[in-house]
UniProtKB/TrEMBL annotation:
Residues 91-184 form the YHYH domain. PANTHER family: UNCHARACTERIZED PROTEIN YBCL-RELATED, YHYH DOMAIN-CONTAINING PROTEIN. The lineage of its organism: Bacteria, Pseudomonadati, Pseudomonadota, Alphaproteobacteria, Rhodobacterales. Residues 1-18 form the signal peptide. Residues 239-274 are annotated as: Disordered. Pfam families: YHYH (PF14240). Residues 261-274 have a biased composition (Polar residues). This is YHYH domain-containing protein. Keywords: Signal.
Length: 315
């Protein structure tokens, strides 16, 4: 029997937890990990909503070489997780988050080159691999085009912070309602080669199906195997816009990468990302302005040819 056929059989024979139990499981995964103070979980008839500011309490941006000259800025993010998941076996992809970690940080697939086609899923997209191209920090994340922090591979720093860290701990949830675990089975046994499907998942006795992180690409969930009737309505983080009108210019990765990138945070809410490129120093700095959800920026970037620019930008 093929893996796909086996997955469908098990998912039907062992249906996912009922609505209330699934809601409790999502809430417990956040609380047991120790993130209940920063992530709220509310359940509707169809979804568990995990709401956070997408801003984790761990190191960020350290180790990035292939920067896109974007910095992480807090952003309210309601992540919807289906409460009655149904395995479909038909992979869904999108150029945005596919799920959320238990600390409220969105989880993307491993690429940074736009939405993958179904054909792309079967082949490693080396040129768009955010890990191999140096775009990720030591914690597995970076700031994207929306100046939001998110993960593209296993969130190692978050996992190290989890109060219940271990093979059986759920580290996140895909939007289709299925849980995400680490590199091993929940009982700690090794996942043999060829067991995980194209979305980096396999069948599960409790939830019907589960996703995993892995040391090799695709590293984490890269597509969704569950039904999602409102797939096109899944949330996206809105990029910052200038207070005077118009959007901020997206950053572009400096060719060949940058050196000595350091991201610092102060207790007053100000942040600074400093780095060098071809012997020149550059920076992106911001602090909360007098306007709610707005920030005063001062930047000197490769994208803007080294010109110093200032302005107020808002969510």
């Amino acid at each position: 029997m093929s893996l796909l056929a086996c997955s469908i059989f098990v998912a039907v024979a062992n249906p996912a937890l009922a609505h209330d139990d699934h809601c409790d499981a999502v809430a417990a995964s956040v609380a047991d990990a120790g993130f209940a103070a920063s992530v709220t979980v509310t359940c509707t008839e169809t979804q568990a909503i995990l709401t956070s500011d997408t801003y984790p309490d761990h190191d960020m941006m350290t180790g990035i070489v292939g920067t896109n000259e974007q910095v992480p800025v807090p952003a309210e993010y309601p992540a919807p997780v289906v409460l009655n998941p149904v395995f479909s076996g038909k992979p869904l992809t999108r150029d945005a988050a596919l799920g959320v970690a238990v600390n409220g940080v969105p989880i993307y697939d491993y690429t940074g080159g736009g939405e993958m086609s179904e054909a792309d899923l079967a082949h490693h997209q080396a040129q768009h691999d955010t890990l191999q191209t140096g775009q990720l920090d030591v914690c597995g994340g970076h700031a994207g085009r929306g100046d939001d922090y998110h993960y593209h591979v296993a969130p190692t720093c978050m996992i190290a912070q989890m109060a219940n860290a271990g093979p059986e701990a759920i580290i996140g949830w895909a939007f289709d309602g299925f849980p995400i675990y680490g590199d091993t089975n929940p009982d700690g046994t090794t996942i043999e080669g060829g067991v995980l499907d194209v979305c980096n998942g396999q069948t599960d006795d409790t939830f019907g199906y589960r996703y995993h992180t892995s040391q090799e690409a695709p590293y984490i969930v890269q597509c969704l195997m569950g039904e999602l009737p409102n797939f096109n309505d899944l949330p996206r983080v809105r990029p910052l816009s200038a207070a005077s009108g118009g959007g901020a210019q997206p950053g572009r990765p400096p060719q060949g990468g940058v050196q000595n990138l350091v991201f610092t945070q102060s207790t007053d809410g100000s942040r600074s990302m400093d780095y060098s490129y071809q012997g020149e120093d550059y920076y992106i700095r911001y602090s909360p302005s007098a306007t709610e959800n707005c920030y005063d920026y001062s930047t000197k970037t490769v994208t803007n040819d080294g010109d110093v620019m200032e302005g107020e930008f808002c969510r």
